[in-house]
Specification:
Helices cover 38% and strands 17% of the residues. It has 230 residues and is α+β, with helices and mostly antiparallel strands. The chain has one domain: NADH Oxidase (3-Layer(aba) Sandwich), CATH 3.40.109.10. Strands 3-4-8-7 form a 4-stranded antiparallel sheet. A two-stranded antiparallel sheet has the order 1-2. It has a two-stranded antiparallel ribbon with strand order 5-6. It is globular and about 70 Å long.
């Protein structure tokens, strides 16, 4: 007798879940290929202005929105911007903050650590990339009667969603850059976001300009990032 397709727990419907099952050899191969593919991802600062269909951005955002979240509250809003005037305004205000960072806020050690990445206070990609996705975290929500309640594990939830978004961008053959022009309150003002949202991350999305060069850096090896208890 087959199990039911759904059951009720605590008064809520739960549906049967089926996962693809692979052999040990397939598991090893699939995990290895995925790592090798993901390891090709790089942060890119030189973008082409080649257009990208809106449907692609919609699919990327839907992919990110499959992320797990505290109590399934999905405490995020993804603002996708292609409007040239808005992108220009965002660049102008971001560069004001970046100038203050590089000239006053960043320590000498911080700026020294950034030298291999060749970053600076100028952010032309904010205008050149065909799309900007700005991720806002929802600190709290309003119920139908106007009562306010906090969301759970907001930073953890939105961090996972951003990681999935970056992977989805890479999967589409596009590039991005994690940009945090701290403080980022100006983004909520420009985009007229409600008081319960805070800017978390800005991702320009597009094709790389040709030719494009990225820093010749390596990632930590497994022994530096993992500890196994067997």
């Amino acid at each position: 007798m087959e199990p039911p397709s759904s059951i009720t727990i605590n008064g809520y419907k739960h549906v049967s879940y089926h996962a693809d099952i692979f052999s040990k050899e397939e598991l090893i191969l699939k995990s290895k290929l995925f790592y090798e593919w993901l390891n090709k991802r790089r942060s890119v600062r030189d973008f082409s202005d080649k257009s990208i269909p809106k449907e692609v951005i919609e699919n990327l955002i839907k992919s990110a929105s499959t992320a797990p979240s505290g109590a399934h509250k999905q405490p995020w809003t993804f603002c996708a911007i292609s409007n040239p005037a808005l992108k220009t305004q965002i660049r102008e205000e971001a560069e004001v903050e970046e100038k203050a960072n590089y000239e006053n806020r960043m320590s000498k050690r911080w700026k020294k650590d950034l030298e291999p990445l060749a970053t600076n206070m100028n952010k032309p990609f904010l205008e050149i990339a065909p799309w900007l996705i700005i991720v806002f975290k929802k600190i709290y929500e309003f119920e139908e009667k106007g009562e306010k309640h906090n969301n759970y594990y907001v930073n953890e939830s939105i961090g996972i969603a951003c990681g999935m978004l970056i992977s989805a961008i890479h999967n589409a053959g596009l590039v991005t850059l994690t940009h945090t022009p701290s403080p980022m309150g100006f983004l909520a003002n420009i985009l007229k976001r409600p008081d319960n949202e805070r800017a978390f991350l800005l991702l320009p999305v597009g094709y790389p300009k040709l030719p494009t060069y990225v820093p010749d850096i390596t990632r930590k090896n497994l022994s530096e990032v993992a500890v196994f208890y067997e």
